[in-house]
Amino acid sequence: MEAMDELILEKTGGFAGFGGVRxxxxxxxxxxxxxxxxxxxxxxxxFFCENGxxxxxxxDGFRYRIVWPSRFGxxxxxxxxxxVPEEIKASVKDRLR
Length: 97
Prior knowledge:
With 97 residues, this protein is α+β, with helices and mostly antiparallel strands.
């Protein structure tokens, strides 16, 4: 793990397409990797190591786009909210565009 290793986060979806291009709200944030427990870190690493397979989408469910620039370049994953650790959810804040 590098000194300032951070995850870049974006929450989208839901019933009204929250966070989408036409949405007045944006939900995003960053989370320092060092804040994650060993279990949470292992889970996140697993998302990036699954060779591009994404968990099934849930109708009207929220999804989190996670980017790990320092470790995985510009690669990102989209994960259903139900699989996202609480530390990451707490790092995402809602704001007006």
